[in-house]
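Question:
Write out your own:
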Amino acid sequence: MSVSEIVRFDAETVASSLHPDRFFDPEPSVRRIARAIYERTHGLPLICPHGHVDPSLLADNAQFPEPTALLIAPDHYLVRMLYSRGVSMESLGIPTRDDTPVEADPRKVWQLFADHFYLFRGTPSGAWLAQEFVEVFGVPAVLTSANAMLVYDEIAEKLTSPEFRPRALFDRFNIEVLATTDKASDPLLAHQAMRSSGWHGRVVPTFRPDAAFRIASPDWTGELTALSSVTGVSITDFTSLLRALQAARRHFIALGATASDHAVVEPWTEWLSADVAQQLFARAQRGDATVDDQRRFEGHMLMEMAQMSITDGLVMQLHPGSLRDHDASIAARFGPDRGGDIPLRTEYTRNLRALLNKFGHDPRFTLILFTLDESTYARELAPLAGLYPALRLGPAWWFHDSIEGMTRFRHAVTETAGFYNTAGFNDDTRAFCSIPARHDLSRRVDANFLAGLVARHQLSLSDAHDVARALAYELAKSTYRFDAPSTVSLFAHAPKGHE
C-alpha cells in the first residue's frame, strides 16, 4: 500500500496553508486593490527568458529523480543557507571533486533538510518552497521534522506518474517559452533533440561566450578548442576567433536563440584596435595573459558582441558584479555554483560609456543590464535607461529577487526610468519546479507596488492593470524578441563551418 493510501494530506488543509493575500499590504484599501490587480495577471503564460534549467531535462523527458535530487541538490540558495548554519555539504550529498564519500541516502538528506527548514523563514526560498509544495505537489507548505518522511514519500510517489514528467509540468506551468543558458561551444544536442521530437514546447538556447573571453584562465585554450570543433573554424588568431563566434551565434539562432548573455566582474568597455586585440590574443596563446589583459580583452569583446547583435539581432544581456568562488575551499572541493559568489560594488556610468555611445542609440540593438549593487539603481541605472533607447533594466536579480528586493527596485528606478524601460521578470533558476512560484511572487509584489500608486491617486486602476500585464508578460516577451518572426529558416544549416 502506498503512503498516499495510508495518509493522504487533506487537500483543503494543504491549500489553506498558503494565504491568498500573501505579500500584499495589510492596509485594507491597498490590499483590496492589489488583489484586483493580481487577479488579472496570475493566470498569464510564463515568459522565462533567462534561466539555467538543463535542456536535457526536457529533451529526455525522463522521470524526475527522487525529491532530494530534484528539489535540494540543484538549488544553491538552499545549500548556501544550510551550509552557513553548519550543515556540511557532504551531509547534503553534494558530490566532491576529490571523490570524498558523501551521504548517499536521499531520505537522510531530506530529513536533515526538514530539520533545518526553519532557517528559510522570511526568505524568498521559503516563499517559493511553500508554494511549490502546495501547488505543485499537494503537500503542506511547512516541512517539519515530524512530517519529513511523509512529505518525501508523497512527492516521490507523484514523481513516478506521467503527469509529473518534465514536459507535462511544462504545460501545466503554462510556460510559453523557456530560455536556457549555454556555452558558445555547446553543440546544443539537447535543443536539436527537442526540435526533432516534434514536441510543441518552446525551449530556446541563450548564447554565453564568457569562457572564450577569459584569456587569463587556464581553461581558455580548451574552450577555444571546443569552439573550433563545434563551428569548424580553426581558431589561430583574433580574426578567426571572431569568425568562430559568428558561426556559433548562427547555430544558436537556428535553434531559436534570441539573446546572448555575458557575465563579467566589472562592466568595463573599450574599443581596441585590431592590432592591440591581436597582441592580447597572442599573449594569451603563449600563456602570458595577465588579469589586466583579460579585463581589456573582455571590455573589447563586449563591444564586438554588441556589433554582432546589430547584425544578427540577438538581444545582449550583461550580468556584472559577482566575485565568483569567494570561498576557495568550497570551489576546490565542490566546484562552482555552490554558494561561493558574493556581490561587489559596481560602477556603470563610466564603464559602459564607450559601449552606449557607440551602440546605445541604434534601433537594432537592445542591451539588458542587471546588477547586484542596489546602490546603483537610482544613481546610475535608472538615469542611463532613461536616456539610451537601446538600454533596458533587468529585474532585481539573484540576491535581490525577493519580496523586499523587488519592491526596492521599483521604488528606486520607476520615477526616472519608468516601467517601460525595464525588461519584465526572469526567474534565473536551475530549479525547474520552482519556476511558477518565482513568477507568482513577482506578480504579487508588482501588484502590491501598483496598488500603492493607485491608493495614493498617482495611477488609475485601469493604467495599473495595463502596467501589471506589461510587467508580468508583455515586456519580457517584446524585449527578448519572442514575438518577432522566427529567423530559423535563415540559418537552417548553420553552423556552416570552415569559414
Notes: The first helix runs from residue 3 to 6. The first strand starts at residue 46 and ends at 48. The CA atoms of residues 201 and 252 lie 17 Å apart. Residues 1-6, 486-499 have pLDDT under 50 and may be disordered.
